[in-house]
Specification:
55 residues, alpha+beta, two-stranded antiparallel ribbon, 1 helix, 2 strands, elongated
């Protein structure tokens, strides 16, 4: 069943990315605190986002 909708889902995700509405999560490589390091941006300031709902 998944194979029948896989292409449709991939197309929809691509449209979302092209519209600038897709959010990649950064991978935190240090313990959480006011300053953290990530794999994408190096050292950054950490502002709590309460992103448990993925909003």
């Amino acid at each position: 069943m998944f194979q029948s909708i896989k292409a449709s889902i991939q197309n929809e995700l691509q449209d979302i990315k092209e519209a600038g509405l897709y959010k990649d999560e950064r991978i935190i490589t240090t313990p959480q605190g006011a300053h953290i390091s990530t794999t994408q941006a190096g050292q950054v300031r950490n502002f709590c986002a309460n992103n448990y709902l993925g909003l």
